[in-house]
Amino acid sequence: MNFSGNRELFEREVTEAPDVADVKWLAAEAKASNSTSSHELRTKLAARLAHAAFLAPDRVGEIYDALAEGWIGEPVGAAPIPTLDEPAMTAPDNLWNVFWSITEDGAAGKLDALAVTSRTAALGKELDDSFRDRVVKTSFTYEGVSEIATLPLPRRHTLEELGACPENSVGRLFYNVIVDNSFDLEVLDRDAIGLSQLPSPLDYLNTRMLQAHDLWHLVGGYETTSLHEIAISAFQMSQFGHSYSAQFLAVTAVIGAQGDAMAYPILMDTITSAWVHGRHTPPMITIDWESVWTGTLEEVRAQFGIKAYERPYPANLIEMAMAAAA
């Protein structure tokens, strides 16, 4: 595999501001190619997603709407997410070196889920305050964000309070997810990564998303598998423009561009279906989860108008493939 040639193509393409019609066309071409799409075509499409993730975060909405429309063959059927109508930013000097090191290791199978998460999160160190400021402004283009912007940071949950909830309640099911999988209640330590130092609304959004990530899995109908981590990233991104999710999916798209074309439709079906699911779901970031711990999953979904994700593939498809290859 010609990693250097693909990187050169990627870096040429990623600096160009994507045209929505071009994104639709590339996605439609990739879909029509089925399991034979070229590295070049997939790399060009991945570069458009990376451009939105790192150079124009306010365009994530229109770029992914175009991606979904081109891939699925019909509009997403939701109101457009506004852009800021600002020019693309310039990539910091070392950004693509760090980015490409992650994608190379990922394509070579050297990274587990935790390594991908931590290394993608570390990409934020390469981005300057101007990027953060643009993400702040972008956040307010998503429904529900203005509503939570003035709230204090969410209090920490405890296993004791969740474990005390009734059987079959959302609180107890959330407890079971955490305990059965040996997960951390907040995924990452909010203090260690300085979330309280972020400007509003990023302080609240990122703190709430870390502590509610596995809760969103549960209520949204996403399982805790590798494929559904990709899916819920698209869901989160569609809900409030989650910057980390956009960056994670850009990394994932480039890894997919370098990999076997046979697997590419699975990746894109997953991303686009979850994106559309999020676009059709009311803003979950506004939910006061602590007030609904005792409700059943069905009751909570009905209360907030949430439908479970309709998965196009078995949730554990990647794990099954890895087991078969071992």
What's the helix and strand layout?
Elements lengths: L2 H12 L5 H13 L6 H16 L5 H13 L22 H13 L5 H10 L6 H11 L5 H4 L10 H5 L6 H11 L21 H19 L5 H15 L2 H16 L5 H16 L17 H8 L12 H9 L1
Helix pairs in contact: 1-3, 2-3, 2-4, 3-13, 4-14, 5-13, 6-13, 10-11, 12-13, 12-14
Number of strands: 0
Distance separating the two termini: 22 Å
Radius of gyration: 19 Å
Approximately how much beta-strand content do the residues carry?
under 5%
Number of helices: 16
Q: Could you spell the SSE succession in H and E letters?
A: HHHHHHHHHHHHHHHH
Mean pLDDT: 94
Name the overall outline. globular
Helix content: 55-70%
Structural class: mainly alpha
Contiguous uncertain segments of 5+ residues: none
- Please give the largest β-sheet: none
